[in-house]
Input
Amino acid sequence: MILLGIESSCDDTATAVVEDGRRVLSSVSTNQDEFHAKYGGIVPEIASRQHVALMSAAVDDALERANLALRDVHGIAVTRGPGLIGSLVVGVAAAKALAFALDKPLFAVNHLHGHIFAAFLDRDEAMPYPFLALLVSGGHSQLVEVLSAVDMRIIGRTRDDAAGEAYDKTARLLGLGYPGGPQLDALARKGNPKAYAFPRHRPDAGTLDMSFSGLKTSVRYFLESEAGRNADPADVAASFQAAVLDVLMARVDAAYRTGDYQALVLSGGVAANSGLQHAVRAWGEANRVPTFIPPPRYCTDNAAMIAAAAYHQQEFVRADALTLSADPNLPFLLAAI
Ligand code: KG4
Ligand code: ZN
Output
C-alpha cells in the first residue's frame, strides 16, 4: 500500500511517499527557517502563507522523487493536529482536494502518533507491541505506553516546558540563533558536561511527570552572575544537556519498569539530539532492551512519519470523510473506533 503523506502542522512544508508504512520512497521538507529566524521564533501567519506557496510543488516533488504518478498512490495521509491552525488547514485542504480528485481514501493522522511511527521507517523488525515511547519535541515531552497502533496512553508528561522548548530557550540565553536545539547540541559536544551542576528535577513519588523550567531558570541566573559571564558557553551548553539527559533517562528507567514492554522508542525533534541518542542506546544495551531511534531526518517534523502512522492505523480505522477539518487541539487518544 503506497500512501502520500502531507505534514504542515508547524513551519515545515513536508510531503512523502511511503510503502507499507515502512519503506520511504521519498521524503521532502521545505524548511522555512529563513523567514522566521529574524523574529526569533515561528510567526504563524508567515508559516501558513509559506505552506500555501509551497504545497503543490512539494507534492509534485515527492512523487517525482519516488518515480510515481498520483494515480499510483493508494491513499492520502495528512496531519490533522495538534499544531498551528493556519498551517494545518493548508495541508488538510490539499489532502482533501487530492483525495476527492483521485477518488482515493483520506487518512487523518495525529502529529504525535506520526512521531512514534517514525521509529519504524526503513526498518524490517515486527512491531514490538507493547512498547514504551519517549516523545520529545518542541511542543511535547511525554512517555507513551503503546499497546497497538490505535491503543496508546500517556503515562508521564512535562509539567511545564517541553524538552525542545527548554533547548530553544536556553540556546537563546546563550546567544545562539533559531532554532536553538541543534545549535546547542553542536556546542555541547565541545564542552565539559561536568563543568556546572545544574539542578535535576526530582518528581514526587508515584508520578512519571517531569519538569524543565527550573533548569532553564537556573541557567539564566547563572549566566547573569559573575561566574556565568566568564564561563565558556560550550561548558554551559554541555552541563545543561547533561541535566536534561539525566531527567529524561531517569523517567524512562522508572516508566519502563511499570509495564511489560518489549522495546523503547525514542521520537520527536529532540530525539535528533546526539547526546540523547547515545544515552538511550547505552540504556538499552545495559538493560538488554531493544531500542528504536529514527535517524535525525525522521526525528524532526516530516511527512514520511504521517504516512507511516496512517498505514499502521488504517487496519483499525475507517478512512476519513472529505468533511474532515483541521484540529489544532486534537486530543492524543483516538476517538471511538
Ligand atoms: O518534532 P519537531 O520537529 O517539532 C515539533 O513537533 O515540535 O521538534 C522541534 C524541536 C525544537 O525545539 C528543536 O530545537 C528541537 O526539536 N531539536 C533539537 C535537536 N534538533 C531539533 N533539540 C536538541 N538537539 C537537537 N539536535
Ligand atoms: Zn513534531
Summary: The chain has a mean pLDDT of 95. Residues 220 and 226 are 12 Å apart (CA to CA).
